[in-house]
């Protein structure tokens, strides 16, 4: 399957009425945060394919639809909405099995559903929303473990795609407080071995900057602007 990954930048190559002719064979879309929700809506409308998204640390106007406890004092009529409010599926702090997206597993040769999980937010650097300390984020990761163990029992693996906004510490991240990665993501990669970790948050202003890094059994990809991933890789021996 071909997966269109986007984050952080409203890409004119995508935000136009001819996008289907530019990307004619996309099976799934992944949005790694810091995107206006009307852009996500446009992508869902144009492709009509399964779309998963998380929030970053910007463009949080509609975060309250998915994290109502953050807005305990907001008027009740502003807190309506579900995880399908925008057509895409919010995967923040969740693990899901998508039976509509199947592929032939390179090791077993059997058809299997896609296993995906995600978390929203960046490292805490001020008092803004959707920011977490490393300990807070690890607590959210720990809550995913029961579902991941069920995946392992049923499908022989924990996870195919881990969708985040921030990157792991020392992988694609920067040294300023806003763009530090999460150390707990490195722990998660080591323990649960997702085939891919797809993140945003780190803008790529130079084509020479590294956007793909292999860490043990996981390939870490920066989805800034857009990136097309073929999954599983045709020659993969994972």
Question: If you had to describe this structure to a student in words, what would you say it looks like?
Answer:
- This protein has a 6-stranded mixed beta sheet, with helices on one face. A 5-stranded mixed beta sheet has the order 4-3-2-1-13, with helices on one face.
- 36% of the residues are buried.
- Mean pLDDT is 90; it is low at 72-83.
- The two termini are 16 Å apart.
- The chain contains 5 helices and 13 strands.
- Helix 1 (19-22) links the parallel strand 1 (2-7) and strand 2 (28-31).
- It has 238 residues and is of the alpha/beta class.
- It has helices at 19-22, 37-47, 134-142, 145-155, 183-192; strands spanning 2-7, 28-31, 51-53, 89-90, 94-104, 111-118, 122-123, 131-132, 161-163, 196-199, 212-215, 218-222, 225-230.
- The protein is globular, with a radius of gyration of 17 Å.
End-to-end span in angstroms?
16 Å
Structural class: alpha/beta
Read across the widest sheet, the strand sequence of neighbours is 5-6-9-10-12-11
Rg on CA atoms, Å: 17 Å
Mean pLDDT: 90
- Work out the helix count: 5
Strand content: 25-35%
How helix-rich are the residues, as a percent range? 10-25%
Which SSEs are present, and which pair or pack?
Layout: E1 2-7, H1 19-22, E2 28-31, H2 37-47, E3 51-53, E4 89-90, E5 94-104, E6 111-118, E7 122-123, E8 131-132, H3 134-142, H4 145-155, E9 161-163, H5 183-192, E10 196-199, E11 212-215, E12 218-222, E13 225-230
Parallel strand pairs: 1-2, 2-3, 3-4, 6-9, 7-8, 9-10, 10-12
Antiparallel strand pairs: 1-13, 5-6, 11-12
